[in-house]
Structures are given as structure tokens and as C-alpha cells.
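Q: What would this chain look like folded?
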Amino acid sequence: MKILLIGEYSNIHWTLAEALRKMEHRVDVLSHSNLWLNNSDYLYPNRSSIRWGVLKNTFNLLKTLPQLRGYDVVQLVNPYFLKLKPELLQYVFQYLKKNNKKIFLGGFEYDFYWIYMCLNKNALRYNDFYANGAFRDTIDNKMAIINWMHGFRGKLNRIIANNCNGIITSLYESYLAYQPYFSGKTKYIPFPIESLPHPQIPSKKIEKVKFYISLKHHREEWKGKDELYSALYKLYYRHPSACEIKQTVFTPYDECEHFMDGCDVMLDQLYSYSPGLNALYAMSKGIVVVGGAEEEHYNLLGEDRLRPIINVRPEGNDIYNKLESLLANTNKISQLSADSIEYIKKHHCPIKVAKECLDFWEKN
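A: My prediction, written as C-alpha cells:
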């Protein structure tokens, strides 16, 4: 099968491409490079500076378009699949649909349908936009609403969703957002994550628990990092001899991956029902994750045994209490670490994910 993956989100398309190539499919990946990834093997890596801006990006894309024909499958990482004007991407989508056999949409992060669901306060007990019955009035949330609910991105999202062959989601929230409107062509398939050959597993006796948290400068409220950070430092203040903290601010992914090495526990995000990519990468290393992992997520995944993630909610002292409980029961860390590694191998093996994608592509 000849496959084109367009756009990138924390390396998921590249990981999927490598798995598909091992299965002897021809796969090309088209993506602008960005601040977090630095892969050089893309069909079309675009490293244009801000000075050239949209004009150069558009020119480069127009030069590339004739190559983007004749594929059996094209998959877009999300509706805003390249960093260009959404109005232009509408015509790119139409070109791709006309000149290729099938086209699929990825529901992997924020988009119109996700935000629309979140703004319905009854859809989830809590989410990035609503918690404890109140709207989370943050800059990130305001910008997301402006871009997706009132800007052309939202219209583009609806056009693609209605005209594509299928939609692949990899988070409980994104599945819940798309399924009511596109039940016949929406499929949940986990993210592809490479397992490490020799992941770290902490010893059963830990003298001092090493916590890791990554923050974004001036965006501490993003994903509830401010609340996680506050609870973690409260823990350190009360138990300084039992734990230590490693934190980074606005760190590119490859550096973030390096900094978390050697840590026992990573604090990922709040307001989520399912673990994000950073959490999954940490778990592949044997690092215990504190973040989102509600039962709805495990049920959708079909997992009835493993519960490796310490699920935290935006309720009272839930974060602090669970961190303190972990500190008081450090003997559990080793087992949670082993369970995390098993969880990634069981559900996120790239070859397994690639087979699920192939099956979905062929049937739709």
C-alpha cells in the first residue's frame, strides 16, 4: 500500500511510518518542522524562518503538491494539518481528496469537535475548559475558542470531517467528541509508542523519590500544570528529605526526554481522562505517571487489569493526597513502573497500531 501521512504531532506519524515500512508498505511523511521535533527524513521538511513567513511556506507547498498524488491512503494529523492559512488548507484538502484514493482525519488533539464537546458542561465531569462547574478563564482557552469556534479552522474541521473516509482518534476525549456525529466512520486506535530495549525500573527500596515536571513559561495554567506544581512543592516543603524535584521550563521534547531520565515519577497533566503523549513516552521508560486516567479511558482501551497511572482530578486536595500517599508507599513505585512498561508494550506497540490502522483504512 502507498501511504502519505501529513502533519506531525510529537512524532506519532513518523513512528507509525517506520512500523508500516517494516510491514513493506511505502510511506511518505510530509510535515513542517517545528520547535519540538527535529527529524530530517521527511519528504518535505520546511525550516523557513518567521521572516519569510506564510508566503514562503505557501510557495514551498505549491511546489510539493504535484508529488502528493496517487496514494492509496492519505492521513491528516488534524484539521489544521500544516502551518498555513486554514483558508488555503481547504483547497489543499480538496486537491488531496481528488487525487488520492482515500483520505482520513486524525483526532489527536484540540479541534472544533473537542472544544464543542468541552463547552457542553454535561459531556464530562471536568475538562480543560470546565472544572468544578466553572469555566477556566485562561488565555489558552480563550485563544482556542477564538481559533476553532469562531475562526476558519472550525469550518475547515467540519468540511474535512464530513468529507473524509474515516476518523482515527487516540484519546478518550477525542473519540467522545467525534463518535456522536460520525459513528459509522470513527475509530479509536492508541498512539504508536516505541518500547525501550532496557527501560529503567526503580528498586523496591527508594531512599528519595525523584519527581519531574515540565512547565511552559507564562503558560503555567496550561493542562493544570500550576495546580500540579503547587501540590508538588507543598509535598517537598513538608517532606524535604523524602523527595526531590527536577523541573524544566519550555523545553523542546528531545531535551525534556533527557531531563526525565533517572526520575521515578512524572507529573503530566490535569483535567484529562486519558494520558497524553508525554505521559506515554515517560511510561515507556518505566517512569510512573501522575495525570489523567479515568475508568472511561481504560474501558475504551479494553484494559481490565493494568492501572499504572496515578489518576488525579481537579477536586480539593486530590493531587496532594495522592502524591503524599505515593511517598508513604514507595514500595508501590517499582510495581507501577513495571506495569507502565507492560501497558505500553500491550497497547501502544507501533506494529500493533499499524495493523489496526491498515484494517480501518481498508474497510472504509
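The longest strand covers residues 209-215.
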